[in-house]
Structure formats: structure tokens, C-alpha cells
Amino acid sequence: MNKKKSSFSGQLGFVLAAAGSAVGVGNLWRFPYLAAKDGGGLFLVIYLALVLTFGFTLLASDIAIGRRTKESAIGAYIQMSPKWKFLGVLTFLVPVLIMTYYAVIGGWVTKYAVVYLTGQTAAAAQDNYFTSFITSPVSPVLFALLFMGVTAFIVYNGVEGGIERVSRCMMPILLVLVVVIAGYSLTLHHVDESGQMRTGMDGLLYYITPHFEGLTFSRFLQILLDAMSQLFFSLSVSMGIMITYGSYVKPEVNLNKAVNQIEIFDTGVALLAGAMIIPAVFVFSGTDGMSAGPSLMFISLPKVFAAMGKAGTFVGLLFFVTTIFATLTSCISVLESITANCMEIFHTGRKKTVLVLTVIYLAASAVIALGYSIFYVEVKLPNGSVGQLLDIMDYISNSVMMPFIALLSAFLIGWIKTPDYVIEEMESTGDTFRRKKLYRVMIRYVAPVMMFVLFLQSTGIL
Ligand code: PHE
Description:
- With about 450 residues, the chain is mainly alpha-helical.
- The protein has helices at about 10-20, 25-35, 40-70, 75-80, 85-115, 120-125, 130-135, 140-155, 160-185, 200-210, 215-235, 240-245, 255-285, 300-305, 310-345, 350-370, 390-415, 420-425, 435-460; strands spanning about 190, 195-200, 380, 385.
- The strands form two sheets. The chain has a two-stranded antiparallel ribbon.
- A hairpin with a 5-residue loop joins β1 and β2 (about 195-200).
- The radius of gyration is 21 Å and the shape is globular.
- The two termini are about 40 Å apart.
């Protein structure tokens, strides 16, 4: 196969693009919601411990495999071992599935940015606003197509001229916005009907204090598994995306530093997102508002913005612009990974490949967006929840395929290629891979066991 010509300009460009992929709705919405649900500081400590051990192992593996093979998932696995081509194909299928619905979520986020831009703060806070939006057969489709179109345009412009350029501009702004909104959240205070005053600082304490009440072994296991699946999703590992991005990294870049920086960026934004959302929800709705789960972003937060008074429209706008940046840079990484694999398989050029994929995914996004109206279905998933088209795609890709792929990859690297395959690449610039011992133990023993348990749990077998 021909070697890739595209590359990131250097370490910073790569780190910002990879952080762009990693930082997404998972950080801004899922992380705060899980932290509130899973015992505040307790979840934070478990998550941080996992980032430093497990997260780093998976991230370093993906990126090192990418740079070493200079191929995307399918080509990379073939190069590692032709017999393991099936794992490359499976890995490639994860972004193929995610792409069908990611632009739909991007469309929802864009819609809400427009809502705040046009000052419809009170309307958005109404109970049925979100439901009536997603069940409409027109508006969610248009927003999804718009988001898909913008994503395709950026990927069409290439690795350095498209992806890197957009990430260099959006990621620093995103970081500043998250810090500003979190700072504002901490200054909030509100007196409820019973005359009780709650402040943003109380909310912060609620967020970072470990809550041990009612902690049993099975609940602890549940928190551990929640943290693990969150980490997976958040770092964009085991879906071939970091392999593709790794294949664009120049040989002189120090991968140790890059991996650390990506982890710090991703975890930092997740922690800040918690500091931005939990105190705000706490001030206006107490701890009840936090169990909102998936509806936190589109139902609970709009109520919080409305309760903020005049400032709410502006804060709401800033929040959804931040979320657009996070979602867009993730969405481009999904499309780039599919594009890169297709270019390698079919030996086609970038522009033609992107154009064909755009047509396919405009259609797919429209179908998924209509999954709440014309194509409405109710399917009971093995984990007990009932889902529509979007949830089905999400369930197959994130809950079933990703842990399975991570399990087999850890086995392939740990036992067939041996951990040195990755370690050599991490040290190819002459720098030492400091967590080498930890890496060996994690990839050979800990990761396979943890992935197996996660797989059993998320498929409802456990
Ligand atoms: N890592 C992203 C997040 O935290 C999600 C994502 C999933 C990105 C799949 C790319 C692909 O939200």
C-alpha cells in the first residue's frame, strides 16, 4: 500500500487535532452527569486513576500503531498480522456506524445555539420544547444536514489545511469558554421557595466531595464500569480514529509528551465541564435536577439558563457554541477515519472519497434524524433501555463493539505482537517511555480482564 502523504505540521497540531476528537459531547454532557450520579468525588478519583493507567495504555497503543504502520485501522491490522484483518475491519465499522448519528447530535446542538442567538430562552425552557423539536420531520433533518455538510467541507480540505487548521482555532477558544462559564457558575446564588439559599460554591463542593452513602460492592463495580466506558468514549480509542490520526504524526514528534498532553486536555475539559454544569444545576434545581441523565443538556440546562435571568441568554449561547466546537472537531475525526480507510482500500483520492461519503452520510443522517418522527421505532436493548434508531447505533458501536475491539486488540498487542511493538515506537525518537512497566502489565493482564467484564456488563450478560 502506498505511504501516506498527509501529515500534521508538528506536535502541537497533532495534539490539538487529537484533543479535538477526544473532547466532545462526552466531556461536556456525559461526564458531569455521571459524576453527579456516581458519588461526586468518588467518581472523580476513580476516573483519574483509570485515565493514568488504562486510558494511557489504550491511547498510547492506538497512536503508536498508527505511526508505526502509517496506515488506518484496516491496513494497520493487516500489517501487524494478516490473520487479524477482521479486527481492522471491525474497528473501521465503529466510525462507520457512529457517523450515521453524530451529525444528528451536532444538528441538535447547532439548533440550540440558534435558539439562544435569537433570544428564545424562555421557549427553550418549556418542558416539551426538545421533544417537539426532535419529533418534527423537518427541522432536525435540516440541522443534521448542515452539520454534516460543514464536517465534510473541513475533511475535504485535508489533514493540515482542514482538520489541523480548524482544531488550532477552535480548541483554544473552547478551553477559554469552558473556564469562563465555569467561573461564572461558581458566582451564582439563588433562594428557593422554602427560603433556602444555594450558591455555586456549595454546588462545587457537592461535585468534588466523595459521597460514600449507600456504597455497596455492586454499586462500586457499577461506578467503575461507568467510569471505564466513559473513558473509552471520551478518548476516542478502540475505534481506529487515533490510529488514523497517529498515522499522520511525523517521525520526530515525541509520542510520550503528545499522549500526556492529549490526556490532560481531555480530562481537564471534562473536569471543567463538571465545574460549569453541576454548580449551575445545583443552584437552581438542587440535586434533583442532576439525575436528569441524557436530558441534562437539552432539557435541564435550558431551564437553568432561563432561571439566570438576562445573563442566561448569553451564557446559553456561549455554552452551545462551546458544544458546537467540541462536537464538530469530534465529528471531523470520525469522517476522517472513514475517509482514510476508504482511500487506502479503494486507492482513491481524498476529494473523490469525501464526496462519495458525503452523499452516503447526508442520506444516513437524514434517516437517523427522522428516527423520532417518520421512522420512529421502539427497540428494547439488551441493557434494558428502550431506544430509537440513534440509540441503537450508539449501543452497537459503543457498548458492544468498542469493548470487544479493545479486548482483542489488547490480546493482539500484549501476546502476539508483544508490548515492545508499541514501546519501540514510543521510544523511536530516543525519548524514554517512562510508564513502560505499567504499560506491559496493563496491556497484557489488566486491560483484557477489564474489557471482558465491561463487554459482559454492557451487553447485559452480566
Ligand atoms: N470522544 C468524544 C467525546 O468525548 C466522542 C467521540 C466518539 C468522538 C466517537 C469521536 C468518535 O464526546
